Amino acid sequence: MTNRDDLVAACDRLLEPERFKDYTLNGLQVAGRDRVVRVMSGVTACQALLDEAVAWQADLLLVHHGYFWKNEPVAITGMKRRRLATLLAHDINLLAYHLPLDAHRELGNNAELGRRLGFTVTGCADGALGEGLVWLGEPSPGLDALGLARKVGDCLGREPLLIEAPGGGEIRRVAWCTGGAQDMIATAVEAGADAFISGEISERTTHLAREMGIHYLAAGHHATERYGVQALGERLAAEFAVEHRFVDIDNPA
């Protein structure tokens, strides 16, 4: 058992959310009970995850996608009311970290995805490691676009959508940014990447990839962002006297 405020303070020290200009509130979003024994983690604080937290009698829910996004309606009605009512009725804390969890050099979504794909990290295209969001690295030797797509699919359990650039050949430098980062493709190109991996794809992404000469792999927003929150949850379990359980709510997008 640990004090909620101590746990939140530890996360804030680790992730340093004040360094990021984000689209949402990072940190404690909904306060529940003061004492924490069970921490459940998941990608998005959807109703299905809330119901799992209630069933497991979790004290704190740790997510990457929480609530209170920029420009969303402020009225507490409908779906938003049901979600908040569930948390409040069961005295469950909601702790959410968005960009700070993407960028963290050890526990972040990009760090964890690169580790699982066996990339040798060489830096970031848009800032220092721990600050930038577009990571750069070297894949295993001999991989072409199809080989990289197979590797990503095997790792994530989800076949990526591959847009091949003209020419083919071995991929020597790869860039990646988890989630909805398809419009950072130009940053990857400018950094000299042969391939760029992210979560989502837009209609324009296909043309950009082909005309800029870079392979693009849309591997799933949810699929690419499952690992940072798990790593953070395991860190909390190791440092505090709490149980941790990750719940993966299926999401094909």
TrEMBL record:
Pfam families assigned: DUF34_NIF3
Entry keyword annotation includes Metal-binding: yes
Q: Does the keyword Metal-binding apply?
A: yes
User: What sections of the sequence does the record tag as coiled-coil?
Assistant: none
The UniProt entry, under Gene3D superfamilies, shows:
NIF3 (NGG1p interacting factor 3)-like
Supply the InterPro entries for this chain. Answer: DUF34/NIF3, DUF34/NIF3_sf
Q: Which family does it belong to?
A: Belongs to the GTP cyclohydrolase I type 2/NIF3 family.
Keyword field: Metal-binding
Protein's name according to its UniProt entry = Nif3-like dinuclear metal center hexameric protein
